[in-house]
Write a structure and sequence with these properties.
- There is one protein chain.
- With about 90 residues, this protein is mainly beta.
- The chain has one domain: Beta Barrel (Thrombin, subunit H).
- It contains no helices and ten strands.
- The strands form three sheets. It has a four-stranded antiparallel beta sheet with strand order 1-2-3-4, with no helix packed on it. A four-stranded antiparallel beta sheet has the order 5-6-7-8, with no helix packed on it. A two-stranded antiparallel sheet has the order 9-10.
- The chain is globular.
- The N and C termini lie far apart (about 25 Å).
């Protein structure tokens, strides 16, 4: 996935590699649970695991303290807008 100068890749070990091509920065994000879905748009990255959702603000590039909340079901789809986002789950 790519947005502006940010490129994001997910590997098989539930690790997301974030690369900022403009500032030549590289960051690895590790997750305890399996990553089931992610979205990168409008200055935010939303990552859903089997138990939690993580929201990262790309403009501040603070990858160490995302906003985190628990979820009950697996997320099938993430729809992001300019101000809001929506998560669609199994229920």
């Amino acid at each position: 996935m790519a947005y502006a100068s940010i490129e994001v890749t997910l590997d098989e070990n539930n690790k997301i590699n974030v690369t900022d091509c403009l500032h030549e920065l590289n960051e690895d994000l590790d997750f305890r649970e399996r990553v089931v879905n992610m979205s990168l748009q409008f200055g935010f990255m939303v990552v859903c695991t089997t138990a939690q959702t993580y929201i990262y603000n790309i403009t501040t590039q603070n990858w160490t303290s995302p906003f985190v909340f628990d979820i009950k079901d697996s997320i099938y789809t993430i729809v992001q807008g300019v101000k809001y986002f929506s998560l669609i789950d199994a229920s």
